[in-house]
């Protein structure tokens, strides 16, 4: 479902979202009095630099197996390098793991950063750092709850604040699951707008696009609501709006009409609704991405950026609870079996399909694609034939809008265990993303108390820019 993580937050005058929904008994399924949808921040960028209009983030929650994918070490002992070798790529001198052969043919469009460092080995706190650019206080805190002092906004929320909504769609959407530990019970910090306030939360679409019954929640009318009844209820909403105009209202309430219109747009606006309709894609295209939750989620991400969404983050944590590690990237057991059997083959399939599809549609130069995770994996196997968490060095890949292809930034040691040169912090990665979107890192946004904050305190990784 499309949902805002309001956590019972109250508006400035103490009226809760539940109170709003009860005003006048205006029930209309997901429409009612509108959700607290996003609006554009007042802050403007200090400089426009990049060429990317949108970003697709592919987040492998659990860790990228960098030894077998983006930073193979064929000369390392087998206890470190694992069971798989390295292969040549389209870029002379650049080798990738043998389990991602399709990706290897796309390196002329990719920049690989082999020296990402968080220094944190916990999903929640290292994830917070990759999502916000700020180290978690303290480090290595698993199941860390959201909230102060770890309440800096995510990349998704900052894009929501910096970019206006388009065609009834928000600037930022996260799908098909939330970032959370313990089966979704413990949300990570850094996934929402934090100190910017709830109105800059991205939209969270928690639903499987590969489900034949998939549709955007709230994009259709309830069965008992005809278009005539819709018109009548919208008229009633307008009357309530007129009444509200007579009240002494704070800034949040004065934004009511804007939020209402966005809620209506998703139902009444054909373009917004159509963006979620994967049935409009030819079978060949859907097959190209793969008939999996991950494949169809990435295809949906492409459709959403085509429709005007500025940032879509696709979270992948698990694919099958009956597989080791629930079929996810957190491969504490049977690491080699997992990455060969499903993880890297599916990722290779989906990633290459996205890059090629965007290029064929003329969209790659204006779409930045980021393949990232909260950390990598240990340079040695544990007693259960698995690899554990490793934030001391790992790899990520960027491609598309604003990125120079065929580039490797940084070098790790012979075991891919420590960085040797050109360390990249999460703040630097995010500064680079903002640069590609046209925003300098010193662009200012303001929190709920009016205090200024730069969108990043990192440095742009100049070596990978086009």
UniProtKB/TrEMBL annotation:
<dbReference type="InterPro" id="IPR006311">
    <property type="entry name" value="TAT_signal"/>
</dbReference>
<protein>
    <submittedName>
        <fullName>DUF1501 domain-containing protein</fullName>
    </submittedName>
</protein>
<dbReference type="Pfam" id="PF07394">
    <property type="entry name" value="DUF1501"/>
</dbReference>
<dbReference type="InterPro" id="IPR017850">
    <property type="entry name" value="Alkaline_phosphatase_core_sf"/>
</dbReference>
<dbReference type="InterPro" id="IPR010869">
    <property type="entry name" value="DUF1501"/>
</dbReference>
């Amino acid at each position: 479902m499309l949902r805002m993580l309001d956590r019972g937050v109250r508006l400035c005058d103490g009226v809760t979202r539940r109170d709003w929904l009860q005003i006048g008994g205006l029930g209309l399924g997901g429409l009612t009095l509108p959700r607290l949808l996003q609006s554009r921040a007042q802050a403007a960028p200090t400089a426009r630099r990049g060429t990317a209009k949108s970003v697709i983030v592919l987040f492998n929650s659990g860790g990228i197996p960098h030894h077998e994918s983006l930073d193979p070490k064929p000369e390392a002992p087998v206890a470190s390098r694992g069971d798989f070798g390295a292969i040549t790529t389209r870029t002379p001198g650049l080798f990738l793991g043998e389990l991602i052969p399709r990706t290897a043919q796309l390196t002329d469009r990719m920049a690989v950063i082999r020296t990402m460092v968080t220094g944190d080995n916990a999903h929640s706190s290292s994830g917070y750092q990759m999502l916000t650019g700020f180290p978690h206080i303290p480090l290595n805190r698993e199941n860390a709850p959201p909230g102060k002092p770890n309440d800096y906004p995510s990349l998704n929320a900052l894009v929501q604040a910096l970019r206006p909504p388009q065609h009834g769609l928000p600037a930022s959407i996260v799908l098909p699951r939330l970032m959370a530990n313990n089966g979704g019970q413990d949300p990570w910090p850094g996934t929402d707008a934090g100190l910017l306030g709830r109105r800059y939360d991205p939209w969270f679409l928690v639903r499987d696009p590969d489900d034949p019954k998939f549709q955007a929640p709230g994009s259709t009318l309830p069965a008992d609501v005809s278009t005539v009844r819709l018109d009548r209820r919208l008229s009633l909403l307008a009357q309530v709006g007129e009444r509200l105009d007579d009240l002494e209202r704070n800034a949040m309430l004065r934004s009511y009409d804007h939020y209402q219109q966005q809620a209506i747009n998703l139902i009444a606006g054909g373009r917004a609704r159509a963006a979620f309709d994967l049935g409009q894609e030819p079978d060949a295209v859907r097959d190209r991405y793969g008939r999996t939750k991950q494949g169809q989620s990435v295809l949906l991400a492409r459709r959403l950026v085509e429709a005007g969404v500025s940032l879509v983050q696709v979270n992948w944590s698990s694919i099958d609870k009956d597989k080791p590690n629930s079929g996810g990237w957190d491969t504490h057991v049977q690491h080699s079996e997992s990455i060969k059997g499903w993880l890297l083959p599916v990722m290779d399939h989906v990633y290459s399909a996205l890059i090629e599809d965007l290029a064929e549609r003329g969209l790659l130069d204006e779409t930045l694609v980021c393949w990232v995770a909260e950390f990598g994996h240990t340079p040695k196997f544990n007693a259960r034939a698995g690899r554990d968490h490793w934030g001391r060095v790992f790899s990520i890949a960027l491609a598309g809008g604003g990125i120079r292809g065929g580039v490797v930034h940084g070098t790790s040691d012979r075991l891919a265990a420590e960085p040797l040169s050109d360390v990249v912090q999460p703040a630097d990665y995010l500064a680079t993303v903002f640069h590609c979107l046209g925003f300098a890192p010193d662009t200012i946004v303001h929190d709920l108390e009016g205090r200024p904050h730069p969108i990043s305190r990192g440095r742009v990784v100049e070596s990978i820019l086009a």
